[in-house]
Amino acid sequence: MKLKLLVVPSIIAAVIIMGIWLIYPAYYNGTDGLKDRYDQLGKEKTKLEAIQGRSVNVDTLSNQLDALSSDKDALYGFIPENIKEAEIIKTLSQMASDAGVLVYNVSLGKPAYDKTEAPQFDTMGATSLDGNATDGSADAGTVGTLPVPKNFETSVEISGNYFQIKEFLKKLNDFSRYNEVTSVLVVKNTTPENGQEDGAIPSDILRADLKMNFNILGKAVLSDGTTSDAVFSNSTLDTKIISQIREQRVLNAIHPEIGQQGRENPFVK
Amino acid sequence: MSTINLADQKEVKSYASFFNGGMINAFLILLVACLVYGGLVYMNKKVVAETQDVHAQYMGEYGKFLTGKANGIIDFKNRSVIAGNLLDKSFFMRDVFSHIEASILPSVYLSKMNYNNKTKVISLSCITDSLDSESRQLLSFQSNEYFSSLSLDKSAIDAKTGLMSFDVSLKIK
Description:
The structure holds two protein chains of two kinds.
Chain A lengths: L1 H26 L6 H35 L4 H6 L6 H15 L2 E7 L3 E2 L6 E4 L18 E5 L3 E12 H13 L4 E10 L16 E12 L23 H9 L21
Helix pairs in contact in A: 4-5
Chain B lengths: L20 H47 L2 H19 L4 H11 L5 E8 L4 E8 L2 H13 L3 E11 L6 E9 L1
Antiparallel strand pairs in B: 1-2, 2-4, 3-4
């Protein structure tokens, strides 16, 4: 009889303890409870649907990009991937010739990041199943980047009259490759040009030292931080930048040709 | 001393069953609790397996996405955004020249011009024939709204030529 009196409360106590220590944590404990697992499953399904949706958009966007064909060259010429020294020299030379100025010095610097434009870092949502999935919070770490332009300074020293120098600068502004004039020094020329005797310098001849920045931009490669970029949310590619470049920059780069190659004795004039 | 039994029926000793209603209910509750727990554990494993399956699908799609045509698109977009920003902040030297041309007086000419895009300051070395022309020239620069400020850095008369030379710094708005 005494045992009977103890069994029922003991069972009830055991059920309560089981509920607290086993059943509820098995349902929800913040990491691996059933509810937590369902939440993780929901997140994984959402991510899968999102990536499938982005993949469909990528196919559409890629077709639009392919259809642009040579039009996109305007953009890739405006900020190229490589320095293209030969193209710069040739184009500057052609500009000088068209403007009527004499170029007597051109130098190109090495590409470097502008101090004010440090590379930008994006964050990503982790894809682990350990319950530590994140959704792009700062704690997720810096794992994805998009390249930023690297500038390189180019110096050009020219000589000509005021209008010729102005014309040269205008052509530089119209150049279809991005360039930013950082400094212009124009002084009255005191150095005789070729074929002129001392004191025979025309009074209207000026010397201009121009410094300008060209830039390059490395190819963007997808990383964990950039797969959720907004561009993949749309199925229409925004291409208005091409017309903007063409409106403002009408002077195309000139591609030099190598011509005849090879000589028997490279030291003979 | 003798006793008298007045009962008309034989006394039957009553032994209540160990498993009475309360006890059964208690065991049933315990059984249900065990079943619930077992169900939770079973469902948990099932959901984990399903999650791993979905995750594997996701990683497959993700891998294809990373190595596919999306790279060309993100590159085009990145280039477009940067090009747009650069076009927006384009600065044209022809504006500098046109405003200086518009402000220079006929009696003044330049011997040197230096423009710094970082500071947006134009430094001019001017030559004229009199202090009166210099003052009018300064007034002319000040009246041009393209320039936000003016500072006279140096002003001197050349003893040989008798001409006034003065250096001016103009800050672009």
